[in-house]
């Protein structure tokens, strides 16, 4: 059993994976102020809630876009398991053929998403990861990572709008009954939920045009379940994509 961790700007996704699949997925807030002991307690609690002991963990792997937190989490895992985690980065075997200007610039989360997507879904493939930022990755029929798109995240855009206006309230991610809102909150919900879904539909059209064929579209990330059901394109929502990718990369390197 492998302990898999993805450290994002807003959330840390943790879970355990074995040959049968993902055993659990949990999210915790990314906090630069937490110590290794505090993270160790949180990670141990997450395992205990799902009936997993540290003795069952045979290895750990981390992908991260927050380097200062990576080292803290790694030390926390060492406290729990006695072993340092494998960290996705330069020198790690992924098997992914990256065809962008500077492959080293590709975020580890996008690498991991792509590895899992290629292993699990028909190609060509568009992967949408909706977190602090919304990213879209394009993978061709031969399994080459061609590049992608980076868009301000739905929550980031909404929070920015609210903080810069005097009368707009904070709202939850709930779809309105109609696109034409009859009050401020309905209008905001329409813009944030239906507007984001329409943006994804439009970008999928453009990416498929450049791929010269229809693609399988897979979405992951904490915001995806709120937005993708309102898209007109068929989108597969896979909350465990990152963890499955980390497990595959762990096996390639260990």
UniProtKB/TrEMBL annotation:
Swiss-Prot/TrEMBL keywords: ATP-binding, Coenzyme A biosynthesis, Cytoplasm, Kinase, Metal-binding, Nucleotide-binding, Potassium, Transferase
Binding-site residues, ATP: 6-13, 132
Functional pathway: Cofactor biosynthesis; coenzyme A biosynthesis; CoA from (R)-pantothenate: step 1/5
Cofactor(s), names only, from the UniProt record: NH4(+); K(+)
GO cellular component: cytoplasm
GO annotation terms (biological process): coenzyme A biosynthetic process
Location in the cell: Cytoplasm
Catalytic residues in the record: 109 (proton acceptor)
Enzyme class: transferase
The UniProt record lists the keyword Cytoplasm: yes
Enzyme Commission identifier(s): 2.7.1.33
A molecular function GO annotation: ATP binding
InterPro entries: ATPase_NBD (IPR043129), Type_III_PanK (IPR004619)
Catalytic reactions on record: (R)-pantothenate + ATP = (R)-4'-phosphopantothenate + ADP + H(+)
The organism's place on the tree of life at top rank: Bacteria
Binding-site list for substrate: 107-110, 184
Binding site for K(+): 129
Gene3D superfamilies to which the protein is assigned, alphabetical: 3.30.420.40
Cofactor: how and how many bound: A monovalent cation. Ammonium or potassium.
Family annotation (Pfam families): Pan_kinase
Function (record text): Catalyzes the phosphorylation of pantothenate (Pan), the first step in CoA biosynthesis.
Family of the protein in this entry: Belongs to the type III pantothenate kinase family.
Subunit: Homodimer.
Name listed for the protein in its UniProt record: Type III pantothenate kinase
Gene behind the chain: coaX
């Amino acid at each position: 059993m492998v302990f898999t961790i993805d450290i994002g700007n807003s959330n840390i996704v943790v879970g355990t994976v074995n040959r049968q699949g993902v055993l659990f997925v949990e999210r915790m807030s990314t906090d630069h102020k937490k110590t290794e002991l505090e993270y160790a307690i949180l990670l141990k609690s997450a395992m205990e809630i799902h009936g997993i002991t540290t003795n069952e963990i045979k290895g750990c792997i981390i992908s991260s876009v927050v380097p200062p937190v990576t080292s803290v989490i790694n030390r926390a895992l060492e406290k729990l398991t006695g072993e340092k985690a494998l960290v996705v980065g330069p020198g790690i075997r992924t098997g992914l053929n990256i065809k962008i200007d500077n492959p080293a610039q590709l975020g580890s989360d996008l690498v991991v998403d792509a590895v899992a997507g290629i292993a699990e879904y028909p190609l060509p493939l568009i992967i949408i990861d909706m977190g602090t930022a919304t990213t879209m990755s394009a993978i061709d029929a031969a399994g080459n990572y061609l590049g992608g798109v980076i868009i301000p995240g739905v929550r980031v855009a909404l929070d920015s709008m609210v903080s810069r206006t005097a009368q707009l309230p904070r709202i939850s991610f709930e779809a309105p009954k109609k696109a034409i809102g009859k009050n401020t909150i309905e209008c905001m919900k329409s813009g944030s939920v239906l507007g984001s879904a329409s943006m994804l539909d439009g970008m999928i059209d453009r990416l498929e045009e450049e791929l010269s064929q229809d693609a399988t579209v897979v979405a992951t990330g904490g915001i995806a379940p709120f937005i993708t059901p309102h898209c007109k394109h068929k989108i597969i929502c896979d909350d465990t994509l990152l963890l499955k990718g980390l497990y595959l990369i762990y096996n390639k390197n260990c």
